[in-house]
Amino acid sequence: xxxxxxxxxxxxxxxxxTIGLRTLLLLAVFGVAGFxxxxxxxxxxxxxxxxxxxxxxxxxxxxxxxxxxxxxxIYDRNGRTLAxxxxxxxxxxxxxxxxxxxxxxxxxxxxxxxxxGVSEExxxxxxxxxxxxRVVKKRVEQEQADQVREFINENEITGIFFEPTTKRYxxxxxxxxxxxxxxxxxxxxxxxxxVYDEQLSGESGMVVMAKDRDGTPMLYQYEQYFDAHDGCSxxxxxxxTVQYYLEKGLSELEARYGTGKGATGxxxxxxTSAILAMASLPNYDLNSPGTLYNDFLTWGMSEGEVTxxxxxxxxxxxxxxxxxxxxxxxxxxxxLTLSMGLEEGVISLNSTFDCTGVIEVEKEEIHCSNREGxxxxxxxxxxxxxxNPAFINIGLRIGNQKFVEYMNAFGLTEKTGIDTTGEASGxxxxxxxxxxxxxxxxxxxxxxxxxxxxxxxxxxxCINGGYLRAPYIVEQxxxxxxxxxxxxxxxxxxxxxxxxxxxxxxxxxxxxxxDGTGKNGKVAxxxxxxxxxxxxxxxxNVIVSFVCFAPADDPQVIMLLTLDEPSKYTGxxxxxxxxxxxxxxxxxxxxxxxxxxxxxxxxxxxxxxxxAVPNLVGESAAQAKSKLIEAGFGCxxxxxxxxxxxxxxxGGAIVxxxxxxxxxxxxxxxxxxxxxPNVIGDSASVANQKLTNAGLIMSISGATNRSSATVHAISxxxxxxxxxxxxxxxxxxxxxSSVTD
Length: 741
Prior knowledge:
The protein is of the alpha+beta class. Helices cover 35% and strands 22% of the residues. Strands 2, 3, 4, 5, 8, 16 and 17 form a seven-stranded mixed sheet that branches. It has a five-stranded antiparallel sheet with strand order 10-9-21-20-19, with helices on both faces. Strands 1-6-7 form a three-stranded antiparallel sheet. The longest helix has 40 residues, at 9-48. It is extended, with a radius of gyration of 38 Å. The mean pLDDT is 88.
């Protein structure tokens, strides 16, 4: 049998070498591929995802808690605190640690509930969650936090810890609430708190500590504290005293004539447009913004309806209607029509108008408040009478195009840019560009809408020399070190009318208060200018208003008050002149002296002006009587002695200088209280007699023509039936019911 041929040795070696090379090549390829994969993964972990994985590792090994920065304070223009943050603590638990350490859960739940006012069921529920962090109650005050610490120490409790934080306080409660606004869990929610949230908030800090695999803090192992940076503070233009006077006046206005629809008020610095006070009813307590504080909001609602509409009701009381809402201004807008006409030269102080009680424009009749007509009247008298036909005539002389230009120039068709939330824009319809009827209605303040804040800023421009400035609330912002980071720029936006025109407007508006529809807005000792307004609303209701400024020859402050849908059943003629002007008089009588604006009494006003009673105790009866008579006081001597042993009112009391002073000469002064009589509705003379007979002194404000048969008391500072000491001054507000507008 033949044998197979043998493979040559060289061929075998070559075959083995080929196999070896192939193997090495494969090993090299797989090695390189494996290295590339490993390298790419390592690159991803160590380079690409380094920060992410490092942070993940840190999060797994550490427990972080945020340290809230102290929110900046808000101050009024005199440095009084309107909003401030103080130190507080969040009380937290670690359910895992409580369980692992075998703590008495029932004891913890009962004790924390009693101290913190949190339901025991909630705490039990929190302790049954598989986590190392649960907040029991946020922003706990120091006293409660210390009670929790005492409980922890006495019972050797573990698993309860604290987070430092801050809590917001509003020292004045509801004062200026619609302006200041409030905070929520996120930050500023409304008002200045929201607009300046970034500046007020500051930068939060952090506490980082080690934790074990169960998430339980490992005390004393590792801990690092990163400081928080406190927020900036705001110095506002608000004056808390002026704000108080304004809110008190609006409350009186609402209580006397309101139906719960609300009232607004703004006090503006005429020279700068700084807001000294701004109020909107209903308001609320900033320390508890979710609580309803106005019964009118829920009037007629069942408990279920209130619960269902609770959110809407809260929004209503949070709204600042002075900037959030628009309205038809009515006759207070005639100030602007007057300014336009004078600036354009279509009218002057020598202009005359004839009012028959009605005027026809494009076949539509528009009536005057005086249906019989005012007859022939000068421009000043037409303004004093608030005569619609006269102002329609002025508007038609100005013309549509110019009228619209002035509306824009006065800033009434856009937002003012005031530094608070939710400002609305004014509204004009297209008809004003071509329709004479639309122009006629606009001329006396109807058929278009403005916000109260935009209107009062425009009115200020009419009396300050013609300069329109943006109204503002924050004067400056300062950081935690006290450095000013923002200062308001008071540069005027533009000059709308001339100094000469503005001076004429002031003169005419002073006449409106002295002899026209604004006579109930008089303030003894002060020259007041102003304008009344009664604007129609859809549905037959009205908005009544009054704008006034002082001193009329050199205005420092201007104030606009409005009342929405006043009651028709109070017995008072529904108008701005009868309802709002008397309240404005009361407010101005308080705020003008406070602002340092000195009164200048006329000879007539000096009789009854407030002065200090001299201290006459120890003087002879004859000398004391002579001093009182010389000062203008009345005098009655009680007793037969020669020396004054007591007096009513006491020396230093501020009373009208025509009041009767009682001098006790030897006879003991009675200490029985006097009962305040009801003088509302009485004439000035009858009211004075009632109060004098009761041993009290009457001081008057409002309409000063006390002898007129149409002047009656509409309010008194002391409630009827109240017991007061003898000689107490009762301020009586007088109003002339003959006013119509």
